[in-house]
Amino acid sequence: MGGGARELAGYLAALAGWMAALAAAVLPQWRQSSYAGDAIITAVGLHEGLWMSCAAQSTGQVQCRLHDSLLSLEVHIQTSRALMVISLLLGFFGIIMSVVGMKCTKVGEEDPVTKSRIAVAGGVLFVLSGLCTLAAVSLYATQVTYEFFRESTIPINARYEFGSALFVGWGAASLSMLGGSLLCCSWPAKERRGQQYHRQSQPSAAREYV
User: Fold this and answer.
1) SS3 of 71, please?
2) 151 band by pLDDT with thresholds 50, 70 and 90
3) From the CB of residue 110, how many other CB atoms can be counted at a distance below 10 Å?
């Protein structure tokens, strides 16, 4: 795969990962009611996310309510919120820098070495964005797992399990890190060596001409 094709593939994968991370951040299905056990004790399915909680009735009606207070939320929710916001910001700046640095764009094409370095910087931002998404989703999933398996008087079919947003988040983190890694392969090693050789050869050539 050529350098330009690799950059384009990495950019598309990272962009898809950023969009998936945005979807995961706003979805309310970070955890949902568990239907494990012998019997279902309620006809209402509960979903909770970083920003709101929803109740889906068996008739198909869904009611959602935003979390009332930021400071009253549990620590893992606040931490996951912060990590997802940081991830989206890093990914946003990674999108801008990658567009500027890719070989298939016309911006800054008079200096290909600097252009490639900008693409690498965009790839690093995408990798960091993916790591933040991975940390947020894994932290939330760890808390859900702990609450599900800990000893409690709450019936198992009244507890919570993984929601679909967690799997979207894991997929988003994988795509972002994969795309960022491909963009990081744009480091202009050969071009840098050629430029250094050209600069070193110019003075000697000038002396021979004199």
Assistant:
1) coil
2) low
3) 7
CA–CA distances in Å: residue 32 to residues 82, 95, 138, 160: 21, 32, 16, 5
- Residue 113: name the closest of 203, 2, 3, 1 by CA: 3
End-to-end CA distance of the chain: 46
* Mode of pairing for the β-strands spanning 52-57 and 62-66: antiparallel
Residue 26 is encoded by which pair of tokens? Answer: 């706003």
The first and second tokens of residue 65, run together, are 């309510």
Interval 76-125: pLDDT, tens: 899 999 999 999 999 999 999 998 888 777 776 677 788 888 889 999 99
What pLDDT digit, counting tens, does each position of 140-149 carry?
Answer: 999 988 888 7
pLDDT in tens, 171-188: 999 999 999 999 888 776
CATH topology of domain 7-27+73-188: Butyryl-CoA Dehydrogenase, subunit A; domain 3 (1.20.140)
- 43: burial class by Cβ within 10 Å (0-12, 13-18, 19+)? exposed
Partners of 48 in beta bridges: 31, 53
Strands 62-66 and 160-162: unpaired
Which residues, 6+ apart, have CB-to-CB distance to 60 below 8 Å? none
- The pLDDT assigned to 196 comes to 47
Report how far apart, in Å, the C-alpha atoms of 204 and of each of 105, 198, 200, 201, 208 are: 36, 11, 8, 6, 6
